[in-house]
Amino acid sequence: MVVRPPVPAPGCCDNGRVSDGPSERGAGLRSFRRFTWWTVLGTTVCLLVVFFGEWILDTDVPALARVPTAVALVVDTVASAVLLGGWLTLSAAAADTRPVRPPRGWLVAAVAAVAATVVLAALPLARRDYGLWAVAPAITVAICATYLAPRHRRSLIVGAVLLAPLPGGAVSLAAGDGKPAYAALFPAGLVAFTVWMVLGPLWAWNLAGRLDRARRLEAELAVRDERLRFAADLHDIQGHHLQAIALKSELAARLVELDPVRAAAEMREVRQLSVDALRDTRAVVRGYRRTTLDDEIANAGRVLAAAGIDARTALEPAALTAGMADSTRHLLGLVMREATTNVLRHSQARYAEVDYRVTEGHAHLRVGNDGADELPPPGTERD
Q1: 293-369 maps to which CATH number?
Q2: Which of 10, 129, 183, 365 is least surrounded, with the fewest CB atoms within 10 Å of its CB?
Q3: Average model confidence (pLDDT) across the chain
Q4: How far apart, in Å, are the Cα atoms of 241 and each of 121, 144, 187, 268, 274?
Q5: Rounded CA separation 182/144 (Å)
Q6: Torsion of CA 65, 66, 71, 76, to 10 degrees
Q7: Which long-range contacts (CB under 8 A, 24 or more apart) does 170-177 make?
Q8: Letter string b/e over residues 15-36, b meaning 16 or more CB atoms within 10 A of that residue's CB
Q9: Which sign, positive or negative, has the C-alpha torsion 342, 347, 352, 353?
Q10: Percent of the chain having pLDDT more than 90?
Q11: For residues 105 and 14, is the Cβ–Cβ distance under 8 A?
């Protein structure tokens, strides 16, 4: 999705640091989002620090080369963190798979990353360090690839892998140091490995986000279908009755002076039609709202699991088959439905438990969760 600058999406911040969007708290993606962030960022930082740290501390390298390299290393690390955080933030708010356009602040970070990459590549290559010069360009290519459409992303990666052997190979042949194969092949392999390490977790995160959006869309469609079904049933029942009432009322109004007896008979039929319409409407509403404890416990398990909550039930088989009036089962079903709604709306639960048993003729239903972060107001009860 193309996000126009500079409005931050939900769950983002201006410095590229990853924060949690409201929808992620109930969707089970918060931990996975942080894991993805730290995995990708840790991989990037480790590659830069491990490869360049020893080179910067090497006293055999002139200070004129080490100092710019150290500065460029810091700039490249910060810019990479900002760009990766920006991609994760915008991808969390994207509604489709089109490429994300970064705001201008992140474009500044991209320019800084490219400039630092040039320094980190040129100085080691000038000293014929063929195992080091391609590290920063490989990371920059991987990060830039995240912001491209799949077709352009593949072109960039393939082009980078094919071009990576040229600088090192040319320097090695010009210097005649006898390492043209190593100078050409190692950078190409390093680019491919780095792209795989960076894009792999980001692809998994993007896929998880798309699956979560599909899950929420499915829930919305289910609610919409149920509303349409109820509206259709109500229309079918009320349409016939109201049409008949309107016609007979109009006929009675015309006959009230010409034939009062027949007009009275028509009005009696109007009254009966009204009673029938009211009865049928109540039946539709009762069928729509009617619920049982068994159905609501099963539905709660599905709904909580879809929200990323580990829901477990402790049910006594005898309790489900115990003789109980339909009105009691309906009442307990409403309690179970309300408790499930409270867990989803008013907690940050990761675990929930439903315990139902019948003891000495008394039904005990308990719903607990680990996400209640404060006590309820006086006079209320909350599990």
Answers
A1: 3.30.565.10
A2: 10
A3: 76
A4: 82, 65, 80, 14, 7
A5: 26
A6: 90
A7: 171/125, 171/128, 171/130, 172/128, 172/130, 175/128, 177/128
A8: ebebbebebbbbbbbbebbeeb
A9: negative
A10: 2
A11: yes
Query: Could you tell me the two tokens for 9?
Result: 């999406």
Residue 84: the pLDDT is: 81
Kindly state the tokens that stand for 258: 């010409």
DSSP bridge partners of 358: 363
Q: Please state, in angstroms and rounded to a whole number, the distance separating the CA atoms of residues 290 and 284.
A: 10
Q: Spell out the SS3 assignment of the chain.
A: CCCCCCCCCCCCCCCCCCCCCHHHHCCCCHHHHHHHHHHHHHHHHHHHHHHHHHHHHCCCCCHHHHHHHHHHHHHHHHHHHHHHHHHHHHHHHCCCCCCCCCCHHHHHHHHHHHHHHHHHHHHHHHCCCCCCCCHHHHHHHHHHHHCCCHHHHHHHHHHHHHHCHHHHHHHHHHHCCCCHHHHHHHHHHHHHHHHHHHHHHHHHHHHHHHHHHHHHHHHHHHHHHHHHHHHHHHHHHHHHHHHHHHHHHHHHHHHHHHCHHHHHHHHHHHHHHHHHHHHHHHHHHHHHHCCCHHHHHHHHHHHHHHCCCEEEEEECHHHHHCCCCHHHHHHHHHHHHHHHHHHHHHCCCCEEEEEEEEECCEEEEEEEECCCCCCCCCCCCCC
- The structure tokens listed for 365 are 């239903």
Can you tell me the mean pLDDT for 159-172?
90
Tokens of 304: 């909580």
Instruction: Look at the block and give the residue holding tokens 């201008």.
Output: 104
> Helices 104-126 & 165-175, crossing angle to 10 degrees?
20
Give ∠ CA 123-127-129 in degrees, rounded to 5.
90
CA 38 vs CA 81, 138, 237: distances in Å: 10, 19, 58
Domain boundaries, the chain: 22-218, 293-369
The pLDDT-based confidence of 244 (bands split at 50, 70, 90) is confident
Q: In what order do the strands lie in the sheet with 362-369?
A: 310-315, 351-359, 362-369
